[in-house]
Amino acid sequence: MTPDPQPGPRSSDPSSVESPRVPLATYRLQLHGTFAFDDATRIVPYLARLGVTDLYTSSYLTARPGSLHGYDIIDHGAINPELGDAASYERFVDALRARDMGHVLDIVPNHMGIAEAANRWWNDVLENGPSSPYAAYFDIDWQPVKRELSDKVLLPVLGDQYGRVLDRQELRLTYEDGAFAVWYHKARLPIEPRSVLQVLRAPLEQVTGALGAEDPQLQEYQSIITALQNLPAYTERAADRVRERAREKEIIRRRLASLTEACAPIRALIDEAVRVFNGKVGDPRSFDQLDGLLGEQVYRLAHWQVAAEEINYRRFFDISELAAIRMEDPAVFRETHRLTLQLVEEGRVTGLRIDHPDGLYDPPGYFLALQRARFAQARRAELREDVRRAEAEIDSLALNYGIHRIADGALMLRVATGSALSSARRENIARAPNGSSRTTCRSRLQPSRH
């Protein structure tokens, strides 16, 4: 029978999984910009005196800027900079270790924050649709019942009906550093690269007149337009076309940025085109061009109240700013758990609290994936120790026999055969008389008599 896990402190080896730490007394801290790592570090001695064995914190992976709760994560691969730098995090971890206290971290596998254009993955989806490398990360229905949303994402972010918001000039087109975007208050929405042709073609005649037909900068401008015409559509799903689009759109963006920086007349004419697209309050027809441009985007802007009936991406309950991610996809699991598992392997985190696993497609499968990942860490640690031990033994063997070195294959064989044995079997072999192992080795190394 497997013994029950022991509460409280465990082995100091962070890779050990033989005796998992079970907290006896936890205390939860809510971390945010005004109560960060250094603030938590200052109260660790007090909590230890109270008898707290394990400190439990809210998630401290990077959340939406200004988040007070930390559960709207935008980047699973980095610690939230609003909570302090790497040194302050290490001070926090060291304070816990010095008192043999564990650390339970909240993680959020079900969803990510997508508000105010802070999520890089989500922004890429809004720009590139199904052809985004992150399109499969989110649970999006690209072919919903409502056909006008085919290959689009409904964004219920507007505070009023779309037409009213447009006429009030609350949606504003901008250009900066080779890229166009539409702003709605604090939210920056990317413009699909091929749709930019509408804006660039508008001043083409004026650019030609200002520079002359043979001007190299005009020719570069025309070449950029041609390149955009040939860019694969955002509906592409073939891997080679997706890669081509991802590569070429960035090249085009850099070319346009360089051109508008070097040529003031072209920049001025683009700025004027942007001004015209943004319309004039009181003149509804003046917004037709911007309306046409928005109609070509991957996203369809809508009043927040339509979300319950028309939204085509899975959310956390009815919160449109929290988009569900497809944790059942191994690629999504790897990308979202790389840092968390690293912190566990290094012993900085001794336990995980899973936020809302009930929202996952396959909760048992997720828990098993976590355990498998942790087990793999422990096995890699054991293998590294086997390699270190085998290298020492082989170095000693080479020295005893006057050999410069032994082929790498011997090390590989030594590690592979050693790791395949149970720990008890290895101990029995280790206790065998030295002469027997030496005799076997010597007999194999003696030259043939024939």
Number of strands: 14
Hey, roughly how much beta strand do the residues contain? 5-15%
Number of domains: 3
Q: Could you give the order of strands across the largest sheet?
A: 1-2-5-14
Mean pLDDT: 87
Query: Secondary-structure element order, as H and E?
Result: EHEEEHEEHEHEEEHHHHHHEHEEHEHHHH
Unreliable runs: 1-7, 433-450
Bin the helical content. 40-55%
Structural class: alpha/beta
Cα-based radius of gyration, to the nearest Å: 30 Å
Shape field: elongated
**Count of helices?**
16
How far is it from the N-terminal to the C-terminal residue, by CA? 56 Å
Topology:
Layout (H helix, E strand, L loop, with lengths): L25 E4 L7 H14 L3 E4 L3 E3 L9 E7 L6 H13 L3 E6 L3 E3 L6 H9 L24 E6 L3 H6 L3 E6 L2 E6 L2 E4 L6 H5 L2 H8 L4 H14 L9 H24 L1 H14 L10 H8 L3 E5 L3 H4 L4 E2 L2 E6 L5 H16 L5 E4 L8 H38 L7 H13 L2 H8 L3 H12 L5
Parallel strand pairs: 1-2, 2-5, 5-14, 7-11
Antiparallel strand pairs: 3-4, 6-13, 8-9, 9-10, 12-13
Helix pairs in contact: 1-2, 7-8, 8-9, 12-13, 13-14
